[in-house]
Recover the amino acids of this structure.
C-alpha cells in the first residue's frame, strides 16, 4: 500500500512551465483521475511521478522523495501504462509481459519459472491468458491495452499510473478495461492515478477527480463537485450539459447554435 | 518453430546444436581445403587423434600435419573469432540503437581503424618490426579514438534524442576520418595497394600470434554482450518505457556500445575491414529463429564465426593461386543468401 504526494511540483520544458506548482495526494488504495484540456499537463504529471524529474517541489512515494530512488527502486513502486506504448515488432505477448519483471532481475539475471508464473497470472487476471502465444503487434486495440496493463501488473508495483487508458478503445472496451482495473485495485490493493479525457467515465471510476488547467489544479473533489457545467465550460471552453445520474454526472457536449 | 508455443522466448538445444554443427563443418572445410587438399576424413581423424586418450593414425605426413596445426588452424580460429565478434557486435548495435541497419562500423570504428592502419603503413613502420606488428596496433588505436570521439560528441546532442544524436555523430566522425585517410593515401600513392588490402579485409597473415592478441578481447566483449541480451529486449520498448520498467538506459547503452566497439576494434585491427557480416548474420538468425535478443545473440556468435570461416575458404579457393579479399566474398555470398532467407521466411509466416 503506497501513497503518492505531489508537493508544489513545477516542471518546465525549454523555459516554459508546464506544471506550475501542483499539489496532489493519492491515498493508499485510492483512485484519483486527473482531467483537463489538452496541454494542461496531465501526462507530464504522470511522467514525473514515474521519474521524479521536477524543476521544483517534490514527489513523495510513501513519504520518500522519488528523486532519491534509483530507477529500479522506482519501478518496484510505480508501474506506468503509457498512452502510446512502443510495441517491439514480432515480440510475443508472454515475452512482452515478462518485460515487467525487469526491475526484479539482477543486471545479468534472466527470469525464472516464478517470473513466468507471475506474468501468466497477470495475463489471466486481465482475461488475456489465451493471447500469450500471439505477437503483440497483431492484437486488436482492446487486447493490446489489456496486455500492456498485464505488463504493468507483472511489475508488482503497488502504484499503477494509467495515461489515457481508454482513448484508443470503443465504449464497450473502455468499460471493460476500467472495470478490470477497478477489480484489480481492490484485489491487489493498488493505488491508481490516471489521466482521462472522457469526463463521464472519469467521474464514474475515480474516487477523486483533479482538474488541471494550464499547469495548475483548477478544481478537485468528488465527481459531483468537479464536473459542474460551469467548471467544465470555463476550463475546456465548451458548452456542456451535465445530467445527474445515480452512477455519477454525465457530461454531454452541446453544439453551439449560431 | 511454433509461434503459438506458450513458453517464454528461449534458446532451444537443437538451435545451439545446429550452430555448433555449422562451426564444425566450416572448421573442417577450413582445415581441409586450400592449395594443398588434405581430405575431410583425414583432417577429422587428425583432429580426433589430438584428443586426450585417443590414438589413431590419420595417415597424414609431417608436412601436412604442420599445414593443419600451424597454418590453417590458426586461420580458422581467427576467422571464428573475427566472424563471431563482428556479427555479434552488429546484432548488439541493432538492439541498442533500435535500428535494423546498424552495423558494427556505425560509430566510426572502420573509418578510425582505416585511418590508423594507413598512418602506420604510410610512415613505413609497417614492414615487420618483430612480433608486434604496428599496423594492427595503430588500427586498434585509431578505431578506439574514433568511437570515443563519436560518443563524446553524441553525448552533447542537445535537443536530439540520444540515439539519433549518437548515430549522426558517428556519421560525422567517420566522414572526417575517411577524408583524412583518403588525403594521406593520395599523397603517398605507392602505399595504396597495401591500404586497399586492409580496407577490404583478409585473414591471410594469420598465425597463432594474431589469435593470441585477439582472443582475450573477443572473449570478454562477447561475454558482456551475451550477459546484457535480456536487457536489449527490454530496450525494444523505447528509452522512456524501458526506464519506467526499471532499466538504467544510459548505463545499459554505454556498456553495450563499449563492449561491441572494443571487440570490433580488436577484430578489424587484425582482419581489416570485413563488411557485411555484422548486418547479414544477425538478421538471418532473426528471420530463422525469432526476434528475441536472448535467442539472436548466442546463435549469432556461432553462425557469425562459421560464416566467416566458410567465406575465407571461398576467398582462397576461388581464383587460385591468388586470394580474393574476404570482404568481397562475404558480400558476394551473403547478399544472395540473405535474399533467399528473406523470401522463404516471409512465406513461412
Amino acid at each position: 500500500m503506497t501513497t503518492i504526494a505531489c508537493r508544489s511540483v513545477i516542471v518546465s520544458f525549454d523555459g516554459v512551465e508546464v506544471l506550475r506548482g501542483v499539489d496532489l495526494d493519492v491515498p493508499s488504495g485510492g483512485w484519483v483521475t486527473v482531467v483537463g484540456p489538452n496541454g494542461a499537463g496531465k501526462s507530464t504529471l504522470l511522467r514525473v511521478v514515474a521519474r521524479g524529474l521536477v524543476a521544483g517541489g517534490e514527489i513523495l512515494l510513501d513519504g520518500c522523495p522519488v528523486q532519491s530512488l534509483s530507477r529500479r527502486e522506482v519501478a518496484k513502486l510505480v508501474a506506468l501504462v503509457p498512452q502510446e506504448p512502443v510495441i517491439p515488432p514480432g515480440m510475443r505477448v508472454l515475452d512482452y509481459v515478462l518485460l515487467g519483471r525487469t526491475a526484479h532481475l539482477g543486471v545479468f539475471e534472466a527470469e525464472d519459472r516464478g517470473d513466468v508464473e507471475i506474468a501468466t497470472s497477470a495475463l489471466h487476471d486481465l482475461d488475456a491468458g489465451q493471447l500469450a502465444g500471439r505477437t503483440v503487434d497483431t492484437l486488436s486495440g482492446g487486447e493490446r491495452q489489456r496486455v500492456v496493463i498485464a505488463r504493468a501488473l507483472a511489475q508488482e508495483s503497488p502504484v499503477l499510473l494509467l495515461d489515457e487508458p481508454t482513448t484508443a478503445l470503443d465504449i464497450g472496451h473502455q468499460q471493460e478495461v476500467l472495470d478490470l482495473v477497478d477489480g484489480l485495485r481492490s484485489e491487489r490493493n493498488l493505488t491508481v492515478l490516471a489521466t482521462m479525457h472522457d469526463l463521464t467515465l472519469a467521474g464514474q471510476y475515480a474516487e477523486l477527480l483533479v482538474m488541471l488547467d494550464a499547469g495548475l489544479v483548477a478544481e478537485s473533489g468528488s465527481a459531483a463537485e468537479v464536473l459542474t457545467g460551469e467548471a467544465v465550460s470555463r476550463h475546456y471552453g465548451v458548452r456542456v450539459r451535465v445530467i445527474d445520474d445515480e452512477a455519477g454526472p454525465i457530461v454531454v457536449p452541446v453544439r453551439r447554435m449560431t | 518453430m511454433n509461434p503459438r508455443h506458450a513458453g517464454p522466448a528461449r534458446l532451444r538445444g537443437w538451435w545451439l546444436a545446429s550452430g555448433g554443427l555449422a562451426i564444425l563443418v566450416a572448421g573442417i572445410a577450413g582445415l581441409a581445403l586450400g592449395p594443398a587438399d588434405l581430405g575431410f576424413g583425414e583432417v577429422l581423424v587428425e583432429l580426433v587423434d589430438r584428443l586426450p586418450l585417443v590414438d589413431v593414425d590419420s595417415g597424414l605426413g609431417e608436412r601436412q600435419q604442420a599445414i593443419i596445426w600451424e597454418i590453417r588452424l590458426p586461420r580458422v580460429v581467427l576467422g571464428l573469432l573475427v566472424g563471431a565478434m563482428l556479427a555479434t557486435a552488429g546484432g548488439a548495435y541493432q538492439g541498442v540503437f533500435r535500428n535494423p541497419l546498424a552495423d558494427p562500423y556505425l560509430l566510426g570504428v572502420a573509418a578510425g581503424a582505416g585511418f590508423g592502419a594507413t598512418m602506420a603503413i604510410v610512415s613505413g613502420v609497417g614492414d615487420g618490426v618483430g612480433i608486434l606488428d604496428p599496423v594492427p596496433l595503430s588500427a586498434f588505436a585509431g578505431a578506439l579514438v574514433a568511437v570515443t570521439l563519436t560518443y563524446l560528441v553524441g553525448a552533447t546532442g542537445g535537443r536530439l534524442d540520444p540515439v539519433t544524436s549518437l548515430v549522426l555523430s558517428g556519421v560525422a566522425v567517420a566522414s572526417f576520418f575517411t577524408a583524412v585517410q583518403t588525403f594521406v593515401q593520395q599523397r603517398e600513392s605507392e602505399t595504396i595497394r597495401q591500404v586497399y588490402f586492409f580496407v577490404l579485409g583478409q585473414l591471410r597473415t594469420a598465425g597463432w600470434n594474431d589469435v593470441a592478441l585477439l582472443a582475450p578481447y573477443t572473449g570478454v566483449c562477447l561475454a558482456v554482450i551475451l550477459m546484457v541480451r535480456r536487457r536489449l529486449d527490454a530496450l525494444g520498448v523505447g528509452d522512456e518505457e524501458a526506464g519506467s520498467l526499471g532499466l538504467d538506459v544510459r548505463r545499459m547503452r554505454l556498456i553495450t556500445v563499449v563492449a561491441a566497439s572494443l571487440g570490433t576494434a580488436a577484430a578489424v585491427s587484425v582482419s581489416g575491414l570485413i563488411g557485411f557480416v555484422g548486418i547479414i548474420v544477425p538478421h538471418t538468425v532473426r528471420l530463422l529463429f525469432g526476434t528475441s535478443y536472448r535467442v539472436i545473440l548466442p546463435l549469432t556468435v556461432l553462425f557469425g564465426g562459421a560464416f566467416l570461416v566458410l567465406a575465407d575458404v571461398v576467398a582462397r579457393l576461388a581464383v587460385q593461386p591468388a586470394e580474393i579479399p574476404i570482404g568481397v566474398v562475404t558480400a558476394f555470398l551473403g547478399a544472395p543468401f540473405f535474399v533467399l532467407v528473406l523470401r522463404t521466411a516471409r512465406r513461412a509466416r
Summary: Residues 1-5 of chain B have pLDDT under 50 and may be disordered. The CA atoms of residues 81 and 133 of chain B lie 19 Å apart. Chain B touches chain A at residues 3-9, 227-228, 230-231, 233-234, 236-238, 240-248, 290-292, 294 (CB under 8 Å). The two ends of chain B are 11 Å apart (CA to CA).
